[in-house]
Each structure stands twice: as C-alpha cells, then as structure tokens.
Write a structure and sequence with these properties.
Helices cover 21% and strands 26% of the residues. It contains 6 helices and 13 strands. The longest helix has 12 residues, at 101-112. It starts with 7 loop residues before the first helix and ends in a 19-residue tail after the last strand.
C-alpha cells in the first residue's frame, strides 16, 4: 500500500467534510503539522471540532483556522497565547472544552485503544467536573472522562520510512503519538522519508500501521513562541 503523497492537499483529498472532528498533534509551535493545517485552511472546510493541546498563536498553527472561522469547537488544555481565540470565546463565537493536559493526552490514548471512558481524580471539585459522572473508589472521588476518537488525526514527525514507521524528536513526541492513534485515519507530515529498513526498529515511536498517508513537509522555518536570551554583560 503506497502511503507517500506528493503534498498535503493530495494527502487530505476525500477526507475533509464540514462538521468533522480532528485530532491535531503538537506542543505549542513545536511539532505542529504546518503543511496539513495550511491545506485544511485552503480547502475551506468549516464547523470543525479540533482536539489539540493548544490552539496555536495568532497567525500560526491552528490560529490560522481560527482566523478564517473554520473552527466551531476546541478541546484544549492551554490557549493563553492566542488573542483571536480569546476574542471568539468571550464573544460566544467559539465553543471551548477545557481539559487538563494529562487528561487530554489520556483521553486520546484511551480512544486509540478502544477505551470509551476512564475515571480520574484530576479536576474533582472544579469546573472540569461539572456535568460529569462522579464515582467513589476506596473513599476517593473520581470523575468519568470520555475517550476521544476523531475522523482524522494530523501529526508531525521527524523521520519516517516509506511504510509510515515514524520517529519523533524530543518535545514533539508529547501529543503527536497519542493523537496519531485516536482517529480513523492518521495523516503524518515529516521532515524526511527514508527507504524501508533504514530505521532501527528499536527507535521507532509510532508503528506504520497507524499512519495511512504521509508527506514530506520540508523545509520548515522552525518558529519560537518566546525567544529568551541572556542579557549582555556590561563592560
């Protein structure tokens, strides 16, 4: 089965529709599927529900889809760097489901493992628990969280082989790996594709069975949200 596509638009062909649910990998601006996000924006598909650790920043990452009003709902844990997100939320134009970071990762992992729900102590007694089932185990309250399973997952990796076996680099592994399994179809963009057999099997983070379509997105201009440098010492 050929998995490598020439570009993001062709890799998404036939998969996008209004009202769909998308799992998007990335951590801040690190490891975000930039080319796939751009292709979704250019397609014009709307009323999207997107599960992602964050919503990008203004004009970058998922912030591009917020700017074009293609997103109906965000399921996220951190959204503090996006003024357009804030504006739409406060104006009642965007539905938001805030989810603790670890819980969000586990909801995606659970969805990918066929687990429809699980109980956790995180969020008990807070707004996170509102409207959710509470159950007591050994004298402690836990809330029921539902697993997440989307129509497609879009992720960003470092290196893959032609069979879709994939390696992440450092922080990019945080949310890309669980998101990849939590959808009917996973589309990955990577910096480099190598022949099958080139990767050490012990170094593969995501088996190719999860990756249905693959593109090379290089070259990337790797952006930094906040550049912090040491103050120059006076003479």
């Amino acid at each position: 089965m050929k998995k490598l596509y020439p570009d993001a638009a062709s890799a998404l062909e036939g998969l996008l529709f209004d009202g769909m649910h998308i799992c998007a990998g990335g951590f801040g601006l690190c490891g975000i599927p930039e080319r796939l996000i751009d292709a979704i924006r250019d397609n014009g598909v709307k009323d999207l529900t997107i599960a992602s650790n964050n919503a990008g920043i203004d004009g970058e990452g998922l912030g591009k889809l917020l700017r074009t009003r293609q997103v109906k709902k965000m399921i996220s844990s951190y959204v503090g760097e996006n003024k357009e997100f804030e504006r739409q939320f406060l104006a009642g134009e965007l539905e938001v489901e805030f989810c603790p970071q670890g819980t969000l990762a586990e909801r995606c992992r659970a969805g990918g493992a066929g687990i429809p729900g699980f109980y956790t102590k995180t969020g008990v007694g807070t707004q996170v628990a509102e409207g959710k089932e509470v159950k007591n185990f050994d004298g402690q309250d836990y809330i029921l969280e539902r697993g997440i399973f989307a129509d497609i997952a879009i992720i960003k990796g470092w290196k893959a082989d032609e069979a879709g076996n994939l390696i992440f680099r450092k922080t990019t592994r945080n949310f890309n790996a669980p998101m990849a399994t939590a959808a009917k179809i996973c589309i990955a963009e990577v910096e480099e594709v190598v022949p099958v057999g080139s990767l050490d099997p012990d170094q593969i983070h995501l088996p190719g069975i999860y990756v249905k379509r693959l593109i090379v997105g290089s070259p990337y201009d790797k952006k930094i949200e906040f550049r912090t440098v040491r103050q120059k010492e006076s003479a």
